[in-house]
Specification:
By secondary structure, the chain is of the alpha/beta class. The chain has a domain of 189 residues: Ribonuclease Inhibitor (Leucine-rich repeat, LRR (right-handed beta-alpha superhelix)). It contains five helices and 23 strands. The protein has a twelve-stranded mixed β-sheet, covered by helices on one side. An eight-stranded mixed β-sheet has the order 1-4-6-8-10-12-14-16. A three-stranded parallel β-sheet has the order 18-20-22, covered by helices on one side. The protein starts with a helix and ends in a 119-residue tail after the last helix. The structure holds 2-acetamido-2-deoxy-beta-D-glucopyranose (4 copies). One 2-acetamido-2-deoxy-beta-D-glucopyranose binds next to strand 21. InterPro entries: Leu-rich_rpt, Leu-rich_rpt_typical-subtyp, LRR_dom_sf, LRR_extensin-like_regulator, LRR_N_plant-typ. Modulates cell morphogenesis by regulating cell wall formation and assembly, and/or growth polarization. It comes from Populus trichocarpa.
Length: 509
C-alpha cells in the first residue's frame, strides 16, 4: 500500500523533473530578449537573465524552478525579493496542498504568506527579512527546490509531517543562520544530506521518520549541535569513536540499522540528557564509561544484541530517571548501585539473562524483570534456555571495541562563544515518537500527544536479533499521530526580532 503510493509519488516527481527540464531549456533560449521588458532596470534584467541560466543549470548541474518576477511587483528590499523567488519556486514544486496552506503565496508581501515569518535582519535592523518557515503538519506533497537557498537569513525551517520527497537541496548551504532544521516525518530519501554539515549555525537537526539510507558521516558528531534526531530511517553503520565529541544534549538513533560497539567515548558526552539507541543492531558489552554521564536522564538501549554485565559504574548516573536495557543478551547480576539511583523511576531489564537482582530493585517505582534467569522471580526464562545461554561465557574484549580515552583535565568547552540562551531541552517525555502512518493516507492534521509509551518492536523470540524487517519501523504499533509538534509556544520565529536565539528543541523523540 505504502509502497504503491511511493512509487506513484516518485513517478510524478520524475515527470515533473522532466517537464521542468523542458521548461528550463526554453526559458534559457528566451533569455536574450528579456531586457526588452519595459520598466525593468538593467540590474533586474541581468538578474533575471542570470536566474534563467541558473534554472537551466546551476553550478551543481541541478535544475531550478522557472520563476520570473513580474516587474510591477514592488518589494520592500532585495532580500524579500529573493524570498519571493524562493517561495514561488517552492510553490511550483508542490504537487498537493490539501489544506491550502500556500494558497495565499501570491504577490510581493511574502511576510504575509502562510507559514512564513519575518523579522528584522540580524545584520541590518532597518530591513525585514524571512527568518522562519513553519509548515508543520501541512500534509503537503512536493519537493524542495534549490531556490530555497535564497532564504539566506532563515533561522528556522520546520516542515515536519508533510509529504516532501527527494533530497535536501545543496543550496541550503547558503543558510548561514539556520539554527533549527526539522524535516521529520516526510518522504525524503537517499543518502544522509551532507549539506547539513555545512550549516555553521545549526543546533537542532531532526531527520526522523524519513527514508534516508546508507551511512551517517562521522563529521556530524564533531558539529556543535544540541540535538540530533535521526531515528526511523534506514541508516546502516557503526557508530564512530568521535561520537564522544558531540556536545548534544539529546541524540536519538533508534530504529535504524546501526551495529558494532556502543562506543566508550559516550563517557565524554558531558552535556548528554537523553540517548536512545533502541532497536538497532549494536553488539558489544556496555561500556562502563556511560556511568560518567552525570546529567543523563534517559538511557534506552533496548532491542539490540548487547551482552555481558551491566557495569557497577552505571550507579554514577546521578540524574538517571529512565533506564531501558530490555531485549538484549545481558547477563550477570544487576548492580545495586543502579537501583539505588535517587531519581530512577523506571528500570526495564526484561528479556535478558540476568541471574541476580538485589532487593532494592524491587522497590523502584516501576521496573520490569521478566524473562530473565532470576531465581524466585515470576515469569522467568526456562532453565533450559538459561543454561544454554549461560554456559557460554561472554568475553567483552572479543568485540574489539575501541578503548576509552578520557577528556583532559580542562575539557574543551563543547560549545563555542555563542551562548545557548535557553536551557537544555526540557525533561523528556519518555515515549517513542509518534510515528508516521503506516498506510498511505496522510497523517492526521491535528496534533495529538504521542501515544502512551509502548515498547517498539514486537518482542523478539528468544534472543534473535531485533526484527530484521527490511521496511524498518515495525508497523504494528504505528499508525498514530505524527511526530513532534512545533516546538514553540506562541509565534514561532524571532518575530519581534529580539534575537535569533531560538527555544530549545522539542521534548519528544
Ligand atoms: C482548498 O481549496 C479548494 C479549492 O479552492 C477547496 O475545494 C478545498 O475545500 C480547500 N480545502 C480546505 C481544507 O480549505
Ligand atoms: C540596511 O538596509 C538599508 C535598506 O536597504 C540600506 O539603505 C542600508 O545601507 C543598510 N545598512 C547596512 C548597514 O547595510
Ligand atoms: C574524550 O575527549 C578527549 C578530549 O576532548 C579526547 O582526547 C578523547 O579522545 C575523547 N575520548 C574518546 C574515547 O573519544
Ligand atoms: C517504563 O518503561 C517501559 C519501557 O520503556 C515502558 O514500557 C513502561 O510503560 C514505563 N513505565 C512507566 C510507568 O512509564
Amino acid at each position: 500500500m505504502k509502497k504503491t503510493t511511493h512509487s506513484h509519488l516518485h513517478l510524478s516527481l520524475l515527470i515533473a523533473l522532466f517537464l521542468g527540464t523542458v521548461v528550463c531549456l526554453s526559458a534559457a533560449k528566451q533569455a536574450p530578449t528579456i531586457s526588452s521588458y519595459g520598466g525593468l532596470s538593467d540590474a533586474d534584467a541581468m538578474y533575471i537573465k542570470k536566474r534563467q541560466l541558473l534554472y537551466y543549470k546551476d553550478e551543481f548541474g541541478d535544475r531550478g524552478e522557472r520563476v520570473t518576477v513580474d516587474p510591477s511587483l514592488v518589494f520592500p528590499n532585495p532580500r524579500l525579493r529573493n524570498a519571493y523567488i524562493a517561495l514561488q519556486a517552492w510553490k511550483q514544486a508542490i504537487f498537493s496542498d490539501p489544506l491550502n496552506l500556500t494558497a495565499n503565496w501570491v504577490g510581493s508581501q511574502v511576510c504575509n504568506y502562510e507559514g512564513v515569518f519575518c523579522a528584522p535582519a540580524p545584520d541590518n535592523k532597518t530591513i525585514r527579512t524571512v527568518a522562519g518557515i513553519d509548515l508543520n503538519h501541512g500534509d503537503i506533497a512536493g519537493y524542495l527546490p534549490e531556490e530555497l537557498g535564497l532564504l539566506v537569513d532563515l533561522a528556522l525551517f520546520h516542515i515536519n509531517s508533510n509529504r516532501f520527497c527527494g533530497t535536501v537541496p545543496r543550496k541550503f548551504k547558503d543558510m548561514r543562520l539556520l539554527f533549527e532544521l526539522d524535516l521529520s516525518n516526510n518522504r525524503f530519501a537517499g543518502k544522509f544530506p551532507q549539506v547539513v554539515l555545512k550549516l555553521p549555525s545549526l543546533k537542532f537537526l531532526d531527520l526522523r521518520f524519513n527514508e534516508f539510507e546508507g551511512t551517517v558521516p562521522k563529521e556530524l558528531f564533531d558539529k556543535d549541535l544540541d540535538a540530533i534526531f535521526i531515528n526511523h530511517n534506514r541508516f546502516v553503520f557503526d557508530l564512530p569513536e568521535n561520537l564522544g565529541n558531540s556536545p548534544v544534549s539529546v541524540i536519538v538513533l533508534a530504529n535504524n540499522k546501526f551495529h558494532g560497539c556502543v562506543p566508550s567515548s559516550l563517557g565524554n558526552m558531558s552535556n548528554l540528557n537523553e540517548i536512545i539507541l533502541m532497536n538497532n543492531g549494536f553488539r558489544s558489552c556496555m561500556p562502563a564509561e556511560i556511568g560518567l554521564l552525570k546529567d543523563l536522564t534517559v538511557l534506552d538501549v533496548s532491542f539490540n544484541q548487547l551482552m555481558g554485565p551491566l557495569p557497577d559504574a552505571f550507579g554514577g548516573m546521578a540524574s538517571l530517571e529512565q533506564l531501558n536495557v530490555a531485549h538484549n543478551m545481558l547477563s550477570g547480576k544487576i548492580p545495586a548501585s543502579i537501583c539505588k539511583l535517587p531519581n530512577l523511576d523506571n528500570f526495564t531489564f526484561s528479556y535478558n539473562f540476568f541471574t541476580g537482582e538485589p532487593p532494592v530493585c524491587l522497590s523502584l517505582p516501576d521496573f520490569s524483570d521478566r524473562r530473565n534467569c532470576l531465581p524466585a522471580r515470576p515469569l522467568q526464562r526456562s532453565a533450559a534456555q538459561c543454561n544454554a545461554f549461560l554456559s557460554r561465557p561472554v568475553d567483552c574484549s572479543s568485540f574489539r571495541c575501541a578503548p576509552f580515552v578520557p577528556s583532559l583535565p580542562p575539557p574543551p568547552p563543547p560549545s563555542p562563544p555563542m551562548p545557548v540562551p535557553s536551557p537544555p531541552p526540557p525533561p523528556p517525555v519518555y515515549s517513542p515518537p509518534p510515528p508516521p502512518p503506516s498506510s498511505s493516507p496522510p497523517p492526521p492534521i491535528h496534533y495529538k500527544p504521542p501515544p502512551s509509551p509502548s515498547p517498539p518492536p514486537p518482542p523478539a523470540v528468544y534472543y534473535h536479533s531485533p526484527p530484521p524487517l527490511s521496511p524498518p519501523p515495525p508497523p504494528v504499533i504505528y499508525g498514530s499521530p505524527p511526530p513532534p509538534t512545533p516546538v514553540y509556544e506562541g509565534p514561532l520565529p524571532p518575530i519581534t526580532g529580539v534575537s535569533y536565539a531560538s527555544p530549545p528543541p522539542p521534548p519528544f523523540y
